[in-house]
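[job 0412] stage=complex_fold ligand=adenosine-5'-triphosphate status=START
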Amino acid sequence: MENFKKDNIQYIKGVGPKKANLLTKLGIFTIGDLLEHYPRRYEDRSQLKMINNLTDGQVENFKARMMNCAESKPRRGLQITKITVGDSTGTVQLVWFNQPHRKKIYGLGAEVLVTGKVKKIYQVEIQNPEIEMITDMDTLEAGYITPIYAANESITQRFLRNLIRQILTEYNATAEILPPIIIKQFSLLDRKTAFENIHFPLNMDVLKQARRRLVFEELYLLQCGLLYIKKQNRSNTIGIKHGPDGCLVKKVSEQLPFSLTEDQQKVLLEIALDMEDTKPMQRLLQGDVGSGKTVIAALALAKTVENGYQGAMMVPTEILAEQHYSTLSNLFLPLGIRVKILTGKLPKRTHEQVVADIKSGLVDVVIGTHALIQESVEFQYLGLVITDEQHRFGVRQRAKLQEKGNMPDVLVMTATPIPRTMALTVYGDLDVSTIKQLPPGRKIIKTYVRGSDRRQLVYDFIEKEVNSGRQAYVVCPLVEESEKVNALSAVELYDELLKTELVNISCGLVHGRMKSVEKDLVMDRFYRGEIKVLVATTVIEVGVNVPNATVMIIENAERFGLAQLHQLRGRIGRGDHQSYCILLSDNKKPETQERLSIMAKTNDGFALAEEDLKIRGPGQFFGIRQHGLPDLKIADIINDIDVFLEARQAAEKTVARPESFDMLRPALQVRFGKEFSMIFSS
Ligand SMILES: Nc1ncnc2c1ncn2[C@@H]1O[C@H](COP(=O)(O)OP(=O)(O)OP(=O)(O)O)[C@@H](O)[C@H]1O
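[job 0412] stage=complex_fold status=DONE, emitting C-alpha cells
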C-alpha cells in the first residue's frame, strides 16, 4: 500500500512509455491514480436488445457479429469505414469517419457488444459506436454494468477498462487501510471489494456500497490529517499566554464610535480566552461582509501589544492593506501603538527600514500583503498573526507567517461565509467563531436585475444619488481571470461613461494593473468623497469600506459567481443610508436569471454561499487546491454530508489515539503528497 502511488504506470504490463505519456494527459501517473480514475457514469448493458427491436434516436446496447467491412473516400480528407454487424433478427451499419484502424481491430466473425445512438434512415445505422469484444468481458457478462471513464481518442474506454481490470486482479494495490474497528462500526465494504465494484459493479446496490466506502475513506483520511494538525498545534506546544484585557484594550474600545454587537462581543470573548491560554490560538473568524470583523482584529492586536508582543495582519490586496492601515492608525497612533505597513510596492529604502524596525521591535503592529512572509522579515516577538484571507492564502502560507514567531496565536478571518461541511473540510484544522449579526441600523441592500435597455435609467439613478450627496461604484465586466484583460475593459468602460452617462460627475478608475501610487491616489480621493463614482474591476471586491457609497452597478453581472457578487455588493450598505445594487445583464439563460434573482432575493451571505456551492460545486466555489489540500476524487461535499459526518466522527476517535493514528500515517502520506505531509509529518 505505502508504495502504490509511487508505482509508475509505465511499468504495468502492456503500457510502456508511449501509452504512459498519454495516460498522464488524463492525470494518471501511478497505479493509485488509475484506481482512482473513477467512472464518470455507468451504462446498464445487462438489458441487451435484439436488432429488430432497436428504437430510432435511442442509445441502445446489443450483441452482434461482425459481418463485412467497406471503406470509401468520398472526398479528400474524408475516409468512411462501414462495418455491418448482425444478429438473428437483422443487421446494422456501424460508421466511423477517418478511423481506418477500426477495420483491423475487429476481425470479421468476431462477436461484439455495440453501444450507440440508433439512426434509422434507409437502414439502421450507428455513427461512432462504442464496441467491445465479447471475450473482454465474458466473466462479467451476467448483469454487466459498464463503467464510462473520462477518456480521449488515444486512451479508449476499452483500454482503460482492461488496464483497471488487470490492476485489480494482478496487483496488490487495494490492501486495506482503514482500521478494522471502523469498517465494522460503519458497516463499510472492504477496500478490495469496493474498488472492484466501483469499476465493475455486480449490481447497483453493491455499487452504492462501494461508493460509500470510498467516499468515507477519502473524507476520513482528509479529516484525520486536518484534525491531526489541529491537535499538534494544541498539544505539546506551549504558545504565548496573554494576560487578561488591560487598559490599552479598554482605551481602544472606548475610542470606537459605536458599541459592539452581541455577536462581536461573543467572538471577542472566544478570541480573548484562546489568547489567554498557553496553547496557541488557531481560530477562524467568519462573518458576512460588513459584519465588523476589522474592529475585532484591532482589539486582538491591541491585546497582544499590551502584553509586550508584536502583531501582524496579512491581507490579500494592497488596497485592503492601505485601508486597514489607515483604520488601525487612526485607532492606534493616538494611544502610542506603533503601526506600519509593509507591501511589495514600498520604496526600497522604506521597505528596508520597516523590516529593520520589525526586527528590532520598534514596530508594534504591521499590516501587509504577501510581502510579510518574505524571508527577510523577522519579528522580535510575534504574538498574534491575523490573516484576512478571503480564500486567497493557503495552509502553507498561513503556516509561513506563523513560523516567524515562536508559536504565536493565529486568527484567520474570512468574509465568505462557508457552509458547515465546507468549513470543516477547508478549515478543519481551526476552531470557528461566527458573526451572524450585522451592526444595527443597516438596511437591506435593495437589489435589482436589469437588462441593458434600462441602462440609461440606471445611470440617471446614480446621478440622482450623487446629487443627494452619496457615492457609487460601477464594477466593470469580468472578462476572464486575467487582470490584464479586465483592466482593459475597465479603461474602455470608464472612457465611455465619461463621455456619455457620467459626463457631469467626478469619476475615478481603479484596476489591478495601475501603479500603486496612482491606485492609492484614486482610492484616497474616493474615501474623501472627492470622487463620486468609482469605476473598478474586482480589486474593490475585498474589504473596501466607504460607508457613504450607496449604489453599485455591476455590468455583465452574469459573469460573476454568487459569492463574488455578494462580496462586491458588500461594498455598499455599510452606512445608515439605503443602498441599491443593480445587476446589469442581457443574458437570458434560465440558470443565469435564476442565479441573479437569488441575489435580488437575499442579502444573507450564508444562504447565498449554500446556493453557490450547489450551483457551481465545491471545486469552483473556491479551489480546494488553493488551500494546499488535495482535490476530492470521489466525495461530493454537498451530497455526501451524511458520510462526511460519520467520517469526521471516526477521524476524531482515530486522532485521539496515537497508536491508531500512527498506523494511518503511510496512507496519509500517500493521500496528501509532499506539500501537505510536510505540515503534519513531525
Ligand atoms: N458594532 C458596530 N456598530 C456600528 N458600526 C459598526 C460596528 N462594527 C463595525 N461597524 C462599522 O461597520 C463597517 C464595516 O465593518 P468592517 O469593515 O469591520 O466589516 P468587515 O466584517 O471587515 O467587512 P468586510 O468583510 O466586508 O471587509 C465599518 O464602517 C465599521 O466601522
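Residues 258, 260-261, 264, 287, 289-295, 415, 439, 543, 545, 547, 570, 574 surround adenosine-5'-triphosphate (CB under 6 Å).
[job 0412] exit 0
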